[in-house]
Amino acid sequence: MAERVFCVDFGTFYTKVALRSAPQEAGALVPCSDEGLDFWAPTVVSADWTRGEARLEFGHRAADAKPGGKVVVYSNFKRELFAPPPAQGPDLHPIDALLRSEEFEALAAKHGVLPAWVAGLRSLTTSARTLFGTPDASPGGAAARRQEEAKRLTYHYFKWLRECVLKACERLPHTALNYKDIPLRITVPLFGPIETLAQHPGCVRLRDALASAGWPLADPLFVSEPEANAVGILTKAVNALTVRTKKINFREMFNRGPLITVLAGDAHHPTYRALVIDVGTFTSDFAALGIDTCGKEIDTSNGAGFGVTQQSIAFGISDLDATVRAALPEEKRAALNGMARKDFAAFQVSTYSAETGYRIGPGKVIGGSADRPVVESCLSAFCTRLTDETAAFLQQLGPASMQELILTGGGSNIPAVREALIKAAAATPGAAFVKTHAPGLKKVKAGPPVDPLDDKFARGATALGGASLYFEREYF
Prior knowledge:
six-stranded mixed beta sheet
């Protein structure tokens, strides 16, 4: 049980940090940038080898670095950290595979090469590689090297992040707290059963990197991104305990919005569900948090009553980026590949959301009117895949008499994506949504209530939810 905790939403594009400084304190986002610019830092590391050894930069400074020459920019190491096992292929080094193949043996026999000579050649190549440290070039070996590199980058990134967060905490009002001793919790994708979340190979690698970086680790260390996001939005980061029992009080924490009607025992609305869809860079997360009161007022002050259906899929904005890159002319593709992370983020906003394109020089625009047919085709295919995944998730759910829809993540800032998800979610079993939460929403005359989420919750809800008392089971 953690009375206070940091929670990191380790995003592929941005990382966010939340702090719960006491059991009943509301969660708060902590500036996790050495620049003090905002409440999120780009998840990127740059290495400049100009002086013969790597000079590492992180966050906003790394996002300013352009790849090329002696500068290497690492921006997808979370994806590598959680990458699935490599496709089945030869486990041997290509030379070993050749020397041990039936074709090589047949060729040797044809030219009179004795079996003993073949065995000696095999032994010689293996010994030479062992002696000189030649890397394994098999598919499995290449994947293992990428994952080890991702683990090292994660270690360096979280070591830097810890320094930034502790520095930011010096400016907070809780001067009596020893922030160095506050444990860390982290949100991760849910690619399998929730019961085996911590055993996922990506989580194992992440745990090792975090421990080496100096963070005290909370128990539980990992919570799922879909569930944390739902909790952050629905509680608005509020934490509450029942005065008499000192147990978690869900009624106080989830007392904002239509849920309170169901909890009061409304016979016409006995069931409630919040459907949460987060479209991120690496993954899209789906969560349905609900409760069935049977039309009677129930006591949720002890934490009982809520059920969660959730999953993550390895499909997000980076897949849209890849298809757009591939569809653009070579010159524009090269320009995108050579951009600093900060500039590429500006391209995404101007091309996917504003639909104006990104200017790279006099008379040169990427994603503008000349590229709109290509971009719109890619967006259409992306939205189709998302709506198919949404429909598949909805098939797991039963009907609900009162529902809310919550859309978060960077993808929800793209109008085409947001509208496609709202349309797909309308097929959810049960009543129509009584309220929709999403960035950029506008109230429609005579339409249902809307909550135009600000950046604090559109981007930070997962970190805030992960820091919630909801995940401290000893308080139940």
